[in-house]
Specification:
Elements (H helix, E strand, L loop, with lengths): L1 H10 L12 E5 L7 H13 L3 E5 L12 E6 L2 H11 L14 E4 L5 H21 L8 E3 L5 E3 L2
Antiparallel strand pairs: 1-3, 1-4, 2-3, 5-6
């Protein structure tokens, strides 16, 4: 009876509190029509303006659509956790879409990781360009935020 319940309560181990230190998240299943400024705008609308220091939105070779994911590095672990809670399970952004966003911690962490993803994309573009006879054509460039965007 009651004695068994008390014993169960007293012997039950409580889980240890895990303090999350990760700051970089990967937004998955975002609408492919969102450009880098649009992703920034949507993050700002959600209350994350000024809370992140790096954003990378990989674009398709055509440059006019993203690959439906983005990396964001937040200034604090609390902001990263808040983003996961705010965006997971809901459509990302104000577009009318059936896509449900999934946000998880990125395997790579920090602003340097996010910016390196953009730099890698740019290097791959220039490697492809040199294999195509060196013809000058428009392609992605890195702006001050490390975002991969088509050149104007």
């Amino acid at each position: 009876g009651l004695e068994g319940i008390e014993r169960a309560v007293h012997t039950q181990q409580r889980p240890l509190a895990i303090v999350e230190e990760r700051t970089t998240v990967m937004l998955q299943r975002i609408p492919e029509t969102l450009s880098v400024p649009c992703v920034q705008h949507e993050l700002d609308i959600l209350g994350f303006g000024g809370c992140y220091d790096a954003l990378y939105v990989p674009m398709k070779r055509s440059g006019n659509r993203n690959l439906r994911y983005a990396f964001v590095n937040f200034a604090s672990p609390a902001d990263a956790a808040r983003c996961i809670n705010a965006c997971t399970g809901k459509p990302f952004g104000s577009l009318n879409t059936d896509l449900v966003c999934v946000v998880q911690y990125s395997h790579g962490q920090g602003a340097a990781f996010v910016l390196s993803r953009g730099a890698e994309a740019l290097a791959k573009f220039w490697q492809r360009r040199s294999r195509c006879g060196g013809k000058r054509r428009e392609g992605p460039s890195l702006d001050g935020d490390g975002d991969s965007e088509p050149s104007p």
